[in-house]
Amino acid sequence: MSERIFLFDTTLRDGEQVPGCQLNTIEKTQVALALESLGVDVIEAGFPVSSPGDFASVQAISKTVRNCTVCALSRSLAHDIEVAAESLKWAARPRIHTGIGVSDYHINYKFHSSQEAVLQQAVDSVKKARQLVAEVEFYAEDAGRADNVYLARVVEAVIKAGASVINIPDTVGYCLPEHYGEKIRFLMEHVNGIENVIVSTHCHNDLGLATANTLTGIQAGARQVEVTVNGIGERAGNTALEEIAMILKSRRDLGFMTGIKTQNLLKTSHLVSHLMGMPVQPNKAVVGRNAFAHSSGIHQDGIIKNSATYEIINPQDIGLEEDTMVLTARSGRSALRKRLEMLGVNIDSKRLDEVYERFLRLADHNSYLKDDDILALVGQERTANRRIKLESLKVISGKGLQAHADMTLMVAGECRSASSEGNGPVDAAVKAMKKIIPLSMTMQEFLIQAITKGSDDTGKVHMLVEHDGNDYYGFAGNTDIVTATLEAYIDAINKFI
Ligand code: KIV
Ligand code: ZN
Fold first, then answer.
1. Which tens digit of pLDDT belongs to each residue from 224-260?
2. In angstroms, rounded to a whole number, what is the distance separating the alpha carbons of residues 132 and 378?
3. Is-contact 206 235, C-beta < 8 A?
């Protein structure tokens, strides 16, 4: 009989801390519903005291999600905890996640405090949270680098104060798998009352060890794992949900199981990547575009004879359907809707009509449309209601010619035009745009990728724009790559304007 591991998803909190990946409330609710369908046990919906937007998102998710625990983060401060409780008022199963740094680095340099004072603050915050909600999770921040004996004292004290879940984060991704496992085992063996609570892993991937550490944590006694879709998160990210779900499913011999409906993994991955504008690396385990692509002749031969020769996961188990339906200019709305649903995008009939119109225009230029084309189309749809829109763009460029761009933007419903020269078509177009939107901003990363092949292909642009010390991602696709570039730039600007 396998033991149940609880999945705590923090895509909307730790994952969303990635610069440029901020979502609005509607987008966050969409992700939360997808996580609910995926079968996660807990959704960490945000850090409500951090901004009114985060508060509103936690509140909206609390009202919408019924089958998961909804959790809100707080520091060990009474005001944070009160705000978190308020944001969770409508949740079917609310949980406050409160905590404090417990390593010497945090105690000495961040708080200029002492072990005893931090321990007391931890206890007080758990007691405070327990007055407001029934379920309190305590995080011992930077537990990965904390002294085990002190950590055990803190954990024992917060359990006595009423915490029912204890999170042991490797906040900076420093632990090696054996050390993280030993840490959890030490707590399991030395803390009175630990048998009455759930111990949770929370691993960061700075050294590429997040999944391995999570696994040794489980083997040492942790029964909850904190993860994000596609492993997104600050710096190198968090443990990837899909990796843990598939490890425990494909390695039944380990004796653990989750409640994840793995057939939904791929579409949830697509949805998060698409809404956050964060491409998934092609060789990403489980959900990367190449994760099931066998290109060498020897492997293809083996797969044809018996898929077990080179495949340890059945692609259908993660929701990778055979591409039975090719979308062309003759495809109808229902085929488009079905493909969008498969990609994790649900849109109403009115929006479908608009996307379909653009789909037909694009399909006229391409023999058939791949999934990335389709997502690029919905990306345009997503930006259609934003404050700034590209109305028209004319660029003259070529060998021996001075590049020149004329452009009209719609800014908050008002048409504004400008022209500029540049050292190439992109430079001319960006300079013209900056005449209309004279904000200080710089393009930090700029990636153009062909979606399929051929000169009639769609160019997909990912862009990172820096403004006021913050980074924002933009994304767009178009058969005209200068237009795609400008639309990606505008997509990023719309996130901070
Ligand atoms: O990494 C970490 O320590 C965290 C805590 C706030 C839970 O994200
Ligand atoms: Zn974290």
1. 999 999 999 989 999 999 999 999 999 999 999 999 9
2. 41
3. yes
Measured in Å, residue 261 CA sits from the centre of ligand 2 at 24
CATH architecture of 3-276: Alpha-Beta Barrel (3.20)
Question: Going by CA atoms, what residue is nearest to atom 1 of ligand 1?
Answer: 171
CATH of domain 388-493: 3.30.160.270
Q: Phi/psi at 460 (nearest 5 deg)?
A: -110, 130
Please answer whether residues 217 and 175 qualify as being in contact, where contact means their C-beta atoms are separated by less than 8 angstroms. no
Pocket test for ligand 1, best of 141, 200, 227 (most atoms within 8 A of CB): 141
> Does residue 416 carry a pLDDT above 90?
yes
Say what the pLDDT of residue 85 is: 98
pLDDT reading at 460 higher than 60: yes
Would strands 442-450 and 459-467 be described as parallel, antiparallel, or unpaired?
antiparallel
Residues within a 6 A CB radius of ligand 1: 14, 139, 141, 167, 169, 171, 202, 204
Nearest ligand to the CA atom of 73: 1
Phi-psi region of 48 (alpha: psi -120 to 50; beta: other; left: phi over 0): alpha
Q: Which atom of ligand 1 is nearest to the CA of 10?
A: 8
In this structure, which residue's CA is closest to atom 5 in ligand 1?
141
User: What does the pLDDT look like over 16-75, one tens digit per residue?
Assistant: 988 777 888 888 999 999 999 999 999 999 999 999 999 999 999 999 999 999 999 999
Q: Enter the pTM of the model.
A: 0.77
pLDDT digits (tens, 9 = 90+) for 88-117: 999 999 999 999 999 999 999 999 999 999
Span from the CA of 169 to the centroid of ligand 2 (angstroms): 7
Distance 460 CA to ligand 2 centre (A): 31
